[in-house]
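ok, trying the design again with the full structure, not the truncated one.
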């Protein structure tokens, strides 16, 4: 066998291809997964770094210095899994989660300055970039907090009484504000009394200080003063964290960009003594720095080495498995090459597909052996069936030739009967051969069931009367078959002849034809001796007979039922038998009803 067609070689090549593809796919998946994991890790680190910056900015906004920040730095480091370090702008270490002496990262990650907060990383930061938690002199004492809270409760109660609603929020300074569900425009006029928007003593003092800080930069020369609108006063909307529009005389300053810059600088000057000084924030990984994905020559060599090992192991395992698979196949090949008469079986050593194949081969061998035995029996039966009439004809002819008997009409009639029996056997064998070869031709046409049954009964009436057997018929009116009329008369004739041979005198044979959906059902029922249950599967076999001597007594060839089955199956129908010993037999034929015009079926 050429090596290209060897199953072992093909299995090896297939396993190698699978191994190469699997190694390549695994490597690609590992690179993709690692890259995605690195990207996700970077995204998580960026989120954590932003949170660290936010918390440290809040600490700076609420403390005048960095004196107690070390504990906060350590807590952030443990929570986020990052190294956190703060230094002053001149490089002096303020706090560090790492052990003393550990070098800082190459560059700072951010600058912590609550008065110049990045509005992209600090939720709630005001437009000026000032952390809303930096309240400084605006921080209300407990008494004023309670006073403002009572005013907020009063307003909310008024709003709810006037079909409006909202909620109370407390600013970092301690001031309570009412947030209307529909915005400030939805606050009823009777509830907007201005009391809640009136600054407290502490707030008014801080606002007066802010006004004094803005006075120098808001002083314009005569021409500009006449051209510009006079700025409005500074009110509660300048309290850190406030976002609501004022109701009273205090309103946010309206004017040019120069005016806004003046106010922002004044606010930073006012809050500067209350917040911690600017600091640089350094962030890094805890412990040893992680190494990125590196396809260095050493790593490439490792990948190639692992791939080589995988290939070697795959080839070894495939070789072992292939040998186990090929061994029983070779045994099957050797058994199939043995001479047919030996009927060699193979040992079934496994329970997998190969074992099932071996078992199927053994079953095929057994069936072939049985078919061979049936063929030999069939040849013997044919020889026996032909020998009997030929022997009779030869014997009578020899007696006549020797002058021992005159060729009278009785002798000629006897020889004629034997010749007809021979012709009948030969015709039956010819029909079976045509059916086996697929050359049996049917001339199908619509056939009336009552005519078919009547013709069959007419052909066998004389024999039935001579045997004292009664023939009965029952047919559904208008029932039509799609069949070859000649062949179907042959089928019913064979079944009727079989019933006549096995029905004793005084018995009854009933032929019926009825409709069952799209099928026509024909039955031949007799009151004969019946067939044993064990013999029913063999009824339609060629030359089979339950009682060997009966056929010779009744003159049957042993082929009628087999021919009937072949003809019915050629009509795409079925024929079955049902019988109990002593109760007769019922042969049932099911055929398609007529739905189309004449045609020939090979």
């Amino acid at each position: 066998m050429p090596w290209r067609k060897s199953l072992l070689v093909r299995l090896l090549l297939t396993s190698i291809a699978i191994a190469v593809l699997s190694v390549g796919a695994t490597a690609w998946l590992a690179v993709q997964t690692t890259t995605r994991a690195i990207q996700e890790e970077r995204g998580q680190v960026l989120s954590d770094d932003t949170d660290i910056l936010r918390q440290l900015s809040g600490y700076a906004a609420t403390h005048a210095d960095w004196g107690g920040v070390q504990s906060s730095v350590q807590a952030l480091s443990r929570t986020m899994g990052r190294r956190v370090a703060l230094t002053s702008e001149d490089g002096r270490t303020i706090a560090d989660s790492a052990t003393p002496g550990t070098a800082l990262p190459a560059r700072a990650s951010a600058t912590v300055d609550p008065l110049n907060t990045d509005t992209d990383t600090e939720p709630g930061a005001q437009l000026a970039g000032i952390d809303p938690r930096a309240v400084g002199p605006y921080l209300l004492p407990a008494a004023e907090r309670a006073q403002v809270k009572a005013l907020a409760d009063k307003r909310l109660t008024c709003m709810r009484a006037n079909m409006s609603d909202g909620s109370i929020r407390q600013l970092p300074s301690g001031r309570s504000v009412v947030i209307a569900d529909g915005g400030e425009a939805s606050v009823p006029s009777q509830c907007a009394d201005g009391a809640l928007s009136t600054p407290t003593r502490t707030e008014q003092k801080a606002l007066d200080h802010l006004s004094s800080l803005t006075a120098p930069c808001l002083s314009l020369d005569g021409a500009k003063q006449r051209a510009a609108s006079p700025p409005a006063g500074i009110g509660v909307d300048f309290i850190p964290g406030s976002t609501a529009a004022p109701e009273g005389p205090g309103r946010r300053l309206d004017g040019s960009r120069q005016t806004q810059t003046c106010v922002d600088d004044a606010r930073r000057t006012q809050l500067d003594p209350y917040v911690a000084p600017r600091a640089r924030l350094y962030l890094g990984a805890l412990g040893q720095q992680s190494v990125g994905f590196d396809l260095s020559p050493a790593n490439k060599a490792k990948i190639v080495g692992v791939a080589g090992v995988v290939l070697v192991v795959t080839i070894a395992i495939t070789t072992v498995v292939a040998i186990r698979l090929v061994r029983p196949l070779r045994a099957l090949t050797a058994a199939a090459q043995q001479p047919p008469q030996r009927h060699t079986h193979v040992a079934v050593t496994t329970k997998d597909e190969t074992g099932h194949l071996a078992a199927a081969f053994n079953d095929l061998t057994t069936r072939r052996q049985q078919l061979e035995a049936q063929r030999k029996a069939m040849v013997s039966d044919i020889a026996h069936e032909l020998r009997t009439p030929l022997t009779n004809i030869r014997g009578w002819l020899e007696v006549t030739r020797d002058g021992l008997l005159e060729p009278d009409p009785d002798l000629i009639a006897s020889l004629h009967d034997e010749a007809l029996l021979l012709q009948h056997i030969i015709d039956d064998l010819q029909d079976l051969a045509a059916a086996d070869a697929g050359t049996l031709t049917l001339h199908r046409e619509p056939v009336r069931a009552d005519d078919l049954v009547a013709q069959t009964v007419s052909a066998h009436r004389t024999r039935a009367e001579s045997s004292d057997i009664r023939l009965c018929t029952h047919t559904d009116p208008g029932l039509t078959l799609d069949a070859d009329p000649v062949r179907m008369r042959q089928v019913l004739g064979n079944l009727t002849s079989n019933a006549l041979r096995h029905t004793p005198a005084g018995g009854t044979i009933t032929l019926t034809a009825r409709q069952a959906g799209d099928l026509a059902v024909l039955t031949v029922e007799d009151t004969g001796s019946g067939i044993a249950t064990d013999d029913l599967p063999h009824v339609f076999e060629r030359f089979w007979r339950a009682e060997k001597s009966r056929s010779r007594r009744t003159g049957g060839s042993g082929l009628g039922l087999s021919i009937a089955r072949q003809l019915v199956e050629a009509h795409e129908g079925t024929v079955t038998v049902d019988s109990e010993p002593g109760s007769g037999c019922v042969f049932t034929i099911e055929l398609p009803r007529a739905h189309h015009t004449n045609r020939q079926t090979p």
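Keeping the full-length input from now on. Residues 136-274 form one domain.
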